[in-house]
Write a structure and sequence with these properties.
The protein is of the alpha/beta class and about 280 residues long. The chain has helices spanning about 1-35, 120-125, 160-170, 195-205, 230; strands at about 45-50, 55-65, 80-85, 90-95, 105-110, 130-140, 150-155, 180-185, 210-215, 270-275.
Length: about 280
């Protein structure tokens, strides 16, 4: 009788322990997935570090509520930031963090501050300890691993940040085999943002990531440059490929084709741009 009671007590103890472990794990993982953003209301995030990268570019690091908190921004989307211009008037602008949710406890923005930029003024005046009002996620683009076999990306100036975000997410996912080809244009070499990070991706993933820098002001022989069609992973007839063509057979809200659809002329790859605009014509 004593042996039976002892066995039952052991089984009960093990059962309770299992329930506690499962409950704790469930709580941990559910809370880990929950982000700090609110799509309807602005939330305040404290500036914990400001790193000047050049005379008009700085990296702003904002702290999250806890060291294990995540921002909760889907890959390919952005946030809205609110501040005040030089006249004290409220201004909002969209930015893409260069960090991912694997970078817990913080998020970073690389900002190019223009002399006449209204939001640029707000960031230029920010000091460590100040708070930034942020709302999100925003945007209709959401990247899912395996949706395309290759990405061709075009970016200019500060438009590199969404491309870097998507590229990092693709390349750092061991289950994602997508290749990335990036053309990044700037006026001078000094204007190139995140060059060290981009070169590091190219070195770490040589078979999956290629970056090509294009400069306006540089003494080079243009005849020696590769044409766009030689770089990007599709037959490029025009930069109008920046938008889905009628042959893609998908709605404007669905910017990504299905990689498994072999009949889809857009299934092999997709060109992203930092300026997806409805006034750009599609290829006929």
């Amino acid at each position: 009788m004593d042996l039976l009671e002892s066995t039952e007590m052991q089984i009960l103890a093990v059962g309770v322990a299992v329930v506690v472990v499962i409950g704790t794990a469930a709580y941990f993982f559910s809370s880990k997935k929950k982000g700090c953003l609110d799509p309807e209301n602005f939330k305040e995030f404290k500036l914990v570090k400001k790193t000047q990268l050049s005379h008009n570019v700085a990296k702003f690091t904002f702290g999250l509520p806890t060291p294990t908190s995540v921002l909760g921004l889907p890959i390919g989307q952005h946030i809205s930031c609110r501040g005040k211009d030089s006249q004290g008037e409220e201004v909002m602008k969209a930015y893409t963090p260069t960090t991912l949710d694997c970078d817990v406890g913080r998020f970073e923005l690389v900002i190019k501050m223009y002399p006449q930029g209204r939001m640029s003024h707000h960031f230029r005046e920010m000091k460590v300890g100040d708070y930034l009002s942020v709302k999100g996620p925003k945007g209709r683009f959401k990247y899912q691993p395996g949706q395309v076999r290759a990405f061709g990306m075009l970016a200019g100036g500060s438009g590199i940040t969404p491309m870097y975000q998507v590229s990092r997410a693709i390349l750092e996912n061991p289950n994602d085999k997508t290749k990335v080809f990036l053309i990044y244009a700037n006026v001078t070499s000094e204007d190139i943002l995140l060059k060290e990070e981009l070169d590091s991706l190219a070195k770490t993933y040589p078979d999956r990531f290629k970056v090509y820098y294009v400069l306006n002001q540089h003494n080079i022989d243009l005849s020696q440059l590769p044409i766009v069609g030689d770089i990007l992973p599709i037959p490029v007839l025009s930069l109008a490929y920046l938008l889905p063509s009628p042959q893609c057979q998908r709605s404007p809200d669905s910017l990504l084709p299905n990689a498994d659809d072999q009949s889809n002329p857009c299934a092999d790859s997709l060109i992203l741009s930092d300026r997806l605009s409805s006034d750009l014509p599609c290829m006929p």
